[in-house]
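Q: Could you fold this chain for me?
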Amino acid sequence: MRWCEGESLQEPITYRMDLLESLNIPSLPEQQTKTDHKCIVAALEKDSSIRLGFDVCLTCAAPLPKKAYICKGCKRVSYCSSKCRTSDQAHGHGPIVCNLLKLCNIDEDCEEGLLSAVEGTDGVEDARYRVRTELESYPATLANVLTDSPLYRKVLSKKRNKMVTLHIIGASTDAELWKGKNDGGYAAYTEALTAMAEDYSLSQINLVFIGIDCKPILKEKYIVLDEGKTSCRILFEGLVGNYENVVAKSRSRRSEADIYIMFNPGLTCPDYSWKKVFDSLRSGKPFLISTNTELEAVMDCQWLYDQRLVASVPEAVVEMVRAESENTGNDKSHIYSKCLPDKDSGMFFGENPYSGLRIRQSGNFANDLFVKSKYILGGKVDKSSSSSTTHIGEKRKSIDSDQDQEKKKKKSNSALI
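A: Sure. Below is the predicted structure, expressed as structure tokens.
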């Protein structure tokens, strides 16, 4: 169930087309690029910035000829020879991945206003809807997960008839507050937060977007409550800069967050200093994080635990480590033996039921697919934790080096551009 601009959250609508169901696919086939070929391993070790299937051959990482061999179906994947193309089509780039990448072409044309490529077909309306649901997934995730989870409901209950402040950290104005008709993201957040405002009789909701790619903004919206008797003010504020510096300098009441929100932060990406951000967060305050893939969510859980910022790792992640141990014979799940139970720590992990419908292609691994904010995790900041610094076993053998993990994180960050 989802909602769109102009429609009430109390009357949600279903997707006009469930892509995976229409293609008879039980779940999105993420991470289809095969990187265990010895030539690819050697190429990645030499230069971890190469883009498989874009700059070099997707099958063997060889340089592409002037006239590369492109997939005839989706035209989004490149090879050095017809032999490599045939080989990959029998493995990573099969019909399912190819069909989903064709939809990427349509959605990109739709987003850029180049509808001539799909005009006159039944796919125009569906493409517009997919693009819209991706944009609205941030406000839908924020509003619904906060009211679904006992962790956040406990905070909101204490704020009844009062003001609640949410910090969206590492935000980008274009990603979190897109431009469009009816004030774009402002209208979407206002609509999404209506149920929360009504359920807890909130007097004001402060949405503070903080990041180096934010623009300075200060905008007001209002939600009518109690059949017009009262209203809840929503204040949108955009602050430019690194979170730890901006918050330290601010003297506003809005500098004290009740809940921290991070959409696709890339905690393990070396290009960002998330440790400094978390050092500035208050212990005991809850946080919510979204990621594009299951692998990234697992890595983020591990990073938080290794940095002694949380008291536990969700049981689902521990089970994944234990399952992987059965294949490698190296059981590392015992390092979580002193973790608090999920119910005590408030930690959770799983698929995000409020992510959008649009499927995207990785910018670094041409066969890899993802949906923005497809996974969520959350808990409470706990700087008193005495967690281990042993790393989780690899999720898959093809990403077992630091260079490959860094490359995988860059894929996530490129999705916010």
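A (continued): Residues 1-17, 386-417 have pLDDT under 50 and may be disordered.
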